[in-house]
Amino acid sequence: MRSYINLKLAGRLNLMVTLTIGVVMFIFAWFFIQHEETKVKKLFIRHARSFTLNLAYNCEFGLLTGSIEDLTKLLKGALQENDVIYAAVLDGDKKITAYDAKSIMDADQNFQENIIKFAKKAAGFDLKIMEHSFKDLPHFDFMATVYSAAQETAKEDMLYLESDTGVREAIGQVFVCFTLAPLYKGLFYDRCMMIATFSTVVLIVSVMIMLVSRKLVINPLASTLKGIKAVGKGNLDYRLHINRKDEFAELAAGFNEMTKSMKLYTESLRFEKEFSEELIQSQMDLVVVVDKSGILTRVNRATLELFNYSEKDVLGKPATLIFGSNMDSLKKGLLRTLHGEKVHNFEVVISTYNNVKIPVSYNGAPLKDGNGKITGSIGVGRDLREQKKDQELLENYSKNLEQMVENRTKELRQKDTMLVQAGKLAALGEMATGIAHEINQPLNVIKMNATGMLYFLKKGKTLPQEMIEKELGNIDGQVERIRKIINHLKTFSRSSKEIETEEVDINIPLKNSLTFVNEQLRLHQIDVKFELAESMPKAMADANKLEQVFLNILTNARDAMDSREKSVENGGKKYQKALVICSFTENGNIVVAISDTGGGIPKDIEEKIFEPFFTTKEVGKGTGLGMSISYNIMKDFKGSLSFDVEDGVGTTFKVTLPAA
Question: How far is CA 245 from CA 208, 222, 257, in A?
């Protein structure tokens, strides 16, 4: 095969080069031969002209003396020339006096008449030349006038006789017929030699070009073609080895790079194919591929297992084997994809080998070739039996879900209320001593007033009416004070089942919360300063729960300052416990800020302040629920509870609520 390719390509290349060189050399030879022929022809005519004039000069004496013998001898001598075929001498009356010809002219019976006709045409000319053809060869007839007296000439060359001047008398004419046959014979030989030379040159050049092209072009091309065929058969490890630095070396490098890239691409493609095949086969859903005629060409294991078929039973069979003969399903599902449409979540019912009806969610898409022509379709079907069971269960469950959510919500609310209530009770337990002090003070006043009045009555003294009214009024005021404390305590400690909001002046629950701790703050030597804004907007909240928030902040501030006081006393320094309570508006919100001098909250526990059950107090002195409950209460009111810490000074808690 390689020899055939080499010969075929080398032959075509050699033929093309040979024809090109041959045509060029032929054109050159043709022009050269034409040039040489014209040149030789001119030389021939000059020679024939000189020869004819010389013969006319020599015939002068024979014509003057009338010696035919001398004229015949001259003509015979002229016929010794190879290119002279016949000659004649005519007298002054245009009659042939002497004539001689070579044997080839014997057959011509009209040549003497032709000579006489030509002589008449040449009358009055020193020399007349006429060209004609004889036996397909060109001939020249020369007719020269013979004069009676020849003038001396300054030139020795007889060619210049016709230019002599003087008185001359024409006494006759000399006719000579020259043939170009010998000349053409010589030219033909030269042409043959030239053709032979040129042919030899062309042959040598062709052979050299063939050898060079075989080495430089044919062999590299043959190697490249061999490599291409090897790659075409799948041998992607084939490499070209051309140890040159030219275009073929670049071609070999490009070929090697191409095969390397093809190998990488083929391996990647093989991996992708295997991966896709494994992906399709491992699918739990049904995967079905059909051609444009609706014939099954590929299915996955899940499909075969569902229908209890083997690949042999399925491949090459109509799609109705899978989809059944339900035309509505086929038209809406499979046939739509074969017409270029995509199908999404189309539900069809298929039947297995034992006639079990299976609902399937079908998704399909057309398969197209590189030109966009549809070649088939691929479909994925998901078994909906489990989904439908789950859906049925979900529907049944959803019917009871609302009731379950409602019950659970009530349960959580109850627990939340219980937690808040527990926080209240815990706060009341911590404040029991303070509340006792709040009640004992008016009781002492009542006792003192009652004891004084009894003392005077026992002594039999009569008290003035004004004094009695004043003392009884004082007792009544203290009783009212005790009643308010007890009533507020009952209100604070009652359980709230649901969140009930109303417009609240935030200063009121703030002041009410202080009724529980005023006496404690006084006994703990805490200086309380109020900076409450008047005429603030109201907030939507529950006053009772706001009191709980403020109470938790106040008790924590009290404990923090007590704790710091102990540490400061151990250091021998003086420490002033102070509590600043402010209310104001900020960015359209209502804010209560409670600042203490408890030294601040350590950095490592700041993030845990609002976590449930987190406390820094000793065991038995805190539940860890106060701040967590307060934080959630503020969220319920769409507000916030935050704090700022000034290291070494204290903490400011901010209660923020949107204005109603």
Answer: 22, 18, 17
